[in-house]
Specification:
Mean pLDDT of chain B: 95
Number of strands of chain B: 15
Strand order of the largest sheet of chain B: 10-9-8-7-11-12-15
CATH class of the largest domain in chain B: Alpha Beta
Oligomer: heterodimer
Structural class of chain B: alpha/beta
Helix content of chain A: 25-40%
Number of domains of chain A: 2
Low-confidence stretches of chain B: 1-10
Largest sheet of chain A: 8 strands, mixed
Strand content of chain A: 15-25%
Number of strands of chain A: 16
CATH superfamily of the largest domain in chain B: Nucleotide-binding domain of ferredoxin-NADP reductase (FNR) module
Shape of chain A: globular
Distance between the termini of chain A: 58 Å
Order of helices and strands of chain B: HEEEEEHEEHEHEEEHEEEHEH
Number of helices of chain A: 13
CATH topology of the largest domain in chain B: Rossmann fold
Number of domains of chain B: 2
CATH architecture of the largest domain in chain B: 3-Layer(aba) Sandwich
Low-confidence stretches of chain A: none
Largest interface: A-B, 54 and 48 residues
Distance between the termini of chain B: 32 Å
Largest sheet of chain B: 7 strands, mixed
Strand order of the largest sheet of chain A: 3-2-8-9-10-11-1-12
Radius of gyration of chain B: 18 Å
Chain lengths: ~375, ~280
């Protein structure tokens, strides 16, 4: 078997990657430091990356801190995920004018965006694949998602450290990207600051060919492996064996009431989650009533009116809303899309204002069932 | 219908097509039936009994509404709507000549064509008769394909009975129609009680019966359970669920009930698939 091509790119040549992608018509988006968080945004060059920064995460806790080196990707994931580019938080779906017995569409459907995603972590590639199944894998296809996804160029970055909130190892989604990328980078600081690069697609191969790379030495490969191994050391675990059945057996567990005492039903977890896909629409008109628009916005199962039907909301209590979210994410997602809806990125844990930790809640659910069975 | 689904995969899936209101029938104070024909750019629609459309009141919003007309007549589309909110209020106010937006048809259907040779029990509560009327029309069009057919229908009050002008025609066509109300008035000389009290009057063989049930959750739950107790096979009992829907194509997430998307997997479900889920509060 032909050995997979592994090259290195010196850190001071990283801008060659940006230039090459920009030259091919891609808009580069990736991590950048804003408002004391690492968020995804338009980036022009390596100068826009949060070089020398890292993040410190824990339940309900996120802080950026200075590193003692100049690593470009020395942090994990922040509050944003790539879904905001493929499935924007807010967008107009159409504009119509009522004209006699027909509707005239008055907006011009936009050309699909052509993004290069810089710094996609392994758990995030898993999340992209999950949203692919949601929006393009079923009976219907979401055309705007499909078009943007088709265009996207994915530059993966393998994690070389984990936050306390990370549990990708439990979810078998990381820390090393196995596929689903055009190029994958592992940043190493020894033997010199550089990126160990693997090719994942023909597009990736073409882009890489335009960069001034060198063959990876054993020292580079060893440093890359050591970094990934370091990121694999994760204290947080989610026991997934039997979890799907556990949660569907426990719709009426008292644990949900216990969580509801802490949960603010604020929807932060669903906004930060890279796989949550729920949306709502709003229909509006101008003052004449003859021009109408439909807007789509991210919605959340934590919003009371999410389940509204005439007569009231189906899920009136926070307990029922948290149960919907967690059971969907970790259990009924399998029934619907053939996989877990969780990739172990830990965003819902860090960005929960009261620090609710779904790995801990799953563990408690498991324990409560054990206790219950012993007692009965 | 398959080509229709394929078409929608490439176009903007949430764009309604214009249909023209040809006729408006005021069924009761807050319920309207309207008849639609395709407007410019809209195509005639084949549907199966129990399927629904997303109906759009221009600029106001969109709601899922079951089709209440005859599935054999594809030249027009009939919907029956109760005024319960902003969008249904606007839809109930339409006049002949107005344009209504339509997307669909969506969802599963009452599998009436798969149960020829059976006794058929149609059990409806309140406006739940509207999604079942296409089943009755299908039976009327193919009466000889079915054995005994029974309609068990209940409403809260006599003046809330839907389609009362059609019961005699259904009876003449060989359908046993049993009607009850929860609260009678002085003029009512019919049966009083909930729908389940009608089951004992139905002339059907439990072991040969297929039942289609539509109404409030609690009505469907008790009716399905009683029919099951009476000996109807659980997998021959069907109910139609209602939940919030924004897209009807499995993307918005609103209509989930446990593992099910009501829009894709339902709205019509075989009873064993819903039995446990319906007992869980606020699921």
């Amino acid at each position: 078997m032909e050995k997979a091509l592994i090259l290195t790119l010196a850190a001071d040549r990283l801008d060659q990657l940006f230039h090459e992608l920009q030259g091919r018509g891609y808009e580069c988006v990736g991590p950048t430091l804003r408002d004391d968080a690492i968020v995804y945004d338009h980036i022009e060059s390596s100068a826009d990356l949060p070089r020398g920064w890292t993040d410190e995460q824990a339940p309900g806790h996120y802080r950026v801190k200075r590193r003692d080196d100049d690593a470009y990707f020395g942090y994990v994931v922040g509050p944003h995920s790539w879904k905001k580019y493929l499935f924007p938080p807010e967008r107009r779906l159409w504009q119509l004018k009522r004209a006699g017995q027909k509707f005239d569409r008055t907006d011009t459907p936009a050309e699909p965006p052509r993004y290069a995603f810089i710094g996609v972590r392994a758990c995030e590639i898993a999340a992209l694949k999950i949203q692919d199944r949601v929006f393009t894998g079923g009976q219907f296809t979401e055309p705007k998602y499909a078009a943007a996804r088709e265009q996207a160029f994915v530059v993966a970055v393998n994690c070389t450290q984990a936050a306390s909130t990370c549990f990708c190892v439990s979810m078998k989604t990381g820390p090393e990207a196995q596929d689903g990328y055009d190029l994958s980078l592992t940043e190493v600081l020894t033997p010199e600051h550089s990126f160990v690069i693997r090719v994942g697609s023909d597009h990736g191969r073409e882009v890489l060919a335009a960069l001034q790379t060198a063959a990876a030495t054993p020292a580079h490969e060893q440093a890359a492996r050591a970094g990934i191994e370091n990121a694999s050391q994760q204290a947080r675990k989610l026991e997934t064996a039997g979890l799907k059945e556990l949660l569907q057996r426990n719709f009426e567990s008292e644990q949900w009431d216990d969580i509801a005492k802490r949960c603010l039903s604020c929807a932060n977890c669903t906004m930060a989650c890279p796989t949550c896909f729920c949306s709502s629409v709003e229909d509006t008109t101008d003052l004449t009533g003859e021009h109408a628009e439909r807007w789509q916005r991210w919605d959340s199962c934590f919003n009371p009116d999410f389940s509204y039907i005439h007569g009231g909301e189906v899920r009136k209590t926070t307990a029922s809303r948290y149960r919907q979210w967690m059971t969907h994410k970790l259990s009924t997602w399998f029934d619907q899309f053939g996989s877990s809806g969780c990739v172990g990125c830990g965003r819902c844990i860090s960005w929960c204002p009261v620090g609710i930790d779904l790995t801990e809640e799953a563990r408690k659910m498991r324990e409560s069932e054990g206790t219950c069975h012993e007692g009965s | 219908m398959e080509s229709k689904a394929a078409e929608m995969t490439t176009a903007e899936p949430l764009l309604p097509e214009p249909w023209i209101v040809r006729e408006v029938i005021r069924e009761m104070a807050d319920v309207v039936t309207f008849v639609l024909e395709p407007g410019e750019g809209a195509a005639a629609m084949a549907f199966k009994p129990g399927q629904f459309n997303m109906l759009y009141a221009f600029g106001v919003g969109e709601v899922p509404i079951s089709i209440s007309g005859d599935p054999a007549d594809v030249s027009r589309l009939v919907h029956t709507i109760r005024d319960v909110g902003l969008v249904t209020h606007a839809l109930c106010a339409v006049q002949p000549g107005d344009v209504v937006g339509v997307r669909g048809p969506f969802g599963s259907h009452w599998p009436i064509e798969q149960h020829t040779g059976c006794d058929i029990v149609v059990a409806a509560g309140g406006i739940g008769l509207a999604p079942l009327r296409p089943v009755l029309y299908h039976i009327l069009n193919h009466r000889d394909q079915y054995d005994d057919v029974v309609l068990l229908y209940g409403a809260r009050k006599p003046d809330e009975l839907l389609f009362p002008g059609e019961y005699d025609a259904w009876r003449k066509a060989g359908i046993q129609v049993e009607v009850t109300v929860d609260n009678a008035d002085a003029a009512w000389d019919g049966r009083v009680g909930v729908v389940t009290t009608l089951i004992r009057y139905g002339k059907f063989e439990s072991d040969e019966a297929t039942a289609f049930i539509c109404g409030p959750d609690v009505m469907m739950r008790f009716t399905a359970q009683e029919l099951e107790n009476k000996g109807v096979a659980p997998d021959k009992l069907y109910i139609s669920m209602e939940r919030n829907m924004k897209c009807a194509i499995g993307f918005c997430g609103h209509c989930q009930l446990g593992p099910e998307f009501i829009c894709l997997d339902g709205a019509v479900f075989v009873w064993p698939r819903m039995k446990r889920l319906m007992l869980v509060k606020e699921l």
